Amino acid sequence: MKSVGKNIPRLDGYDKVTGKVKYVDDIDIPDCWRGEVVRSDIPYGRIKKINFDKAFDWDKVMTCTYKDIPGKNATIFLSDDQPILAENLVKHVGEAIVLIAAPSASKALEAKKHITIEYDTLDSVLSIEDSRKRKNVIFGKDNIQAKYKIEKGDVKKGFAEADFIVEGEYRTGFHEHAYIETQGMAAIPRPDGGLTVTGSLQCPYYVLKTLKSALLLDETKINVVQAPMGGAFGGKEDYPSLLGMYVALLSIKSGKPVKIIYSRDEDIVVTTKRHPSIVTHKTGVKKDGTITAMEIDVAFEGGAYSTLSPVVLSRGVIHSAGAYKCENTFCTANCYATNNVPTGAFRGFGAPQVFYALEMHIDKVAERIGMSPHEFRLKNCVEVGDRLSTTQLLKESVGAKECLEKVLSAADFGKKWRNNLDTCAFKHLRTKKGIGLSLYMHGGAFTGSGEGMKSEAGLRLNKDGTISVLTGCTDMGQGSHTVLPQIAAESLGVPAALVNTAVPDTAVVPDSGPTVASRTTMIIGSILVRCAEKMKKKLPDLKKRDVKELLKTYYSEHGELKIIERYILPPEIKWDQEKHCGDAYPVYSWAADVAEVSVDAETFEVSVDKLTVAVDVGRAVNPVLVEGQMEGGTLQALGWALMEDCIYKNGKPVNNRFQTYIIPTAKDAPEWKTIIVEKPFSYGPFGAKGIGELPLDGGAPAIANAIYNATGLRITSLPITPEKLYSLYEEKNKIK
Amino acid sequence: MKRRIKLNNGIINADADPIRRLIDVLRYDLQVTGTKDGCGEGACGACSIILNGECVNSCIILFGQIEDGDEILTVEGLLKDGKLSRLQESFVKNGAVHCGACIPGMLLSATALLNKNLKPTDEEIKDSISGNLCRCTGYGKIIKAIRECI
Ligand code: FES
Ligand code: FES
Q: What count of other Cβ atoms lies within 10 Å of the Cβ of residue B67?
């Protein structure tokens, strides 16, 4: 193959290293006003009055409230419960109430100081526990935003057969995306009377949907364009629908272009986070290592509005029993409303929480029966022919065992694990080493028959003899706008240099579905393969002469050639959404991590020395980009495991700055080793599966297990701080 | 306040309020937008530039601190006669660039390092970019890209 499997440097690399790339705040829009947002500073209450200071000259600025929204005052997701601007109730700190635009940022900020809000405060609910016991009912009848149950076999029977039953509870907190480019959007009036909304956003057609419904405009009057994105990780999946509405409302009312760029503090306070979780496990196991039953309960905190929580919870519970053989599983899941900021999409989408719980718990189970963590996993790891907890039969492309075997041998796991076992040595050494393992997977694309929504993508022959990929899916840094042209070039049989990706503009590109769920390479890529087949039939034989000249000539003779195709769901997928039973995903990507850590015996500080990751992606279309995804995602998991902690006080984040919300630096990064395993998926383009989210799922438990191997301390809530390690150490020694 | 400074490859006259942040003068007044604002308080390094040979955070420097004759290098100045610098080339080749938001700052920190230290160790490379946060790459490929330019 000439393009697929090659390390083609990313197509936007040149613009990014020269500073030529224009992120939304870099675009020079003439006569552009700047916007500001007045927000709730209480977690729950009724708005009594909005005071506009009479002493201030309001003629020079423009303000909007919910009354300026002509259509539906809601972001359009699953249940449309989130208002764009609060009407009389606020349900979390940071909820938008009034919008301001002014000719300069300083004027807009000044105006903001002259608006005050009076409230009647209500009794807020700020934790999963309080929501579960209904301290106050703030959502529906019972505070539950979504619930599921997955059943396979008979757990009662399974527990009866077990020699041991092992239980555990695991917790994680809010997790901030911390993309380096904060959220920002601009609305620009078009010469034809329409409006262009552009900015840092993952899903142009999501934003368009909300704009259309709230502004009562159709797509001839409004288009959404993705600007180059400085990172997103899920954080720019749903939130830009709100921000897009803010700039659109202000622009329509003022007649000016309007831009809003969040400061870091504002971004951390108001945008979504990863769902905090409490996951409990009860596992039945035989002496020989057979898992006879798994009972799992997953509780997520959804925050004030349900937004994407029902699907995050669904993905969470589907992954909660992981990649293990077990005849009897029973998984329950609930997402609880609170008066904290709405939680939403974050790389992994519910799976990192359940894998942190599961992969720590598996180590505990193995220990209970005196088996090593790797032997236990090797014995129980799924293979082709096995069924997952949703009863999904694994027919092909299952690299779990190969990933395990490869990662274990590359890291020399067994020997190191045994050598580190003497945790008594912990107090005698300056630093103690530890090694830990995790096994995990991630379902590619939407759940069940979700991909039956018929996403579209296409190829267009351009005048200059190049070919453009047309897709509404965006490149947020992951490299899809290099990978998709590679797939198209390979299928067309043209040099990769002739293919690019058109700017995602809803006026130009079709609706390819959102850029989420590790779906772009696999779903859009496979549509492009079909487009290429069709295009090839129309074009003359591309093997013969100078291809670019040939394409140019074709264009000059026939005009533009555009092929748009729809995604076709593999026919055998059967999914019962009600029972959450059947083929949860078209296919899974599999991986195993080995983390090697050093724990300082005096300060209890943990440093991760090395991370070895083996990953089955079906086919690595661009191996360097695959490694980049694995390393980058695993470092986010490392941050979540050891240092990242959003601290909230009365619904307000206390550490909403990069000085106080600490993410990993180059000095925290381990040495990386990524091993690529390729078990092709017959419906993926050239066998490729998804990769984007997978790396976040396995890092935290591998590190936690390594810390246990080093110290004998099992910390069951993230982040694993020196303080937590120290107090558990003290507690254990006191008991002794 | 007026200042005559060397910005990248040219001499310019800049005129701004002395209490305006240098990053804003660069980005908004002079339209040199390669330098990024990731936090505004010296914690992320997205705004790193080289001022008189030293790598500094331009978000915590006020225009009033700039003197006539000062030399400022931003990411735009790394390109020489339309050619990428070795570091820029190495970043692209090694997959050290993902979203790109941290990259201008990263490149300037690395440039400042290699200007002073021809043979940095891995530890010295890590030290030199430890003030530049990258949320995408895991740093491994960035370190490799810099190492290859030694
Ligand atoms: S923007 Fe200057 S250090 Fe973050
Ligand atoms: S490449 Fe995205 S922050 Fe570094």
A: 10
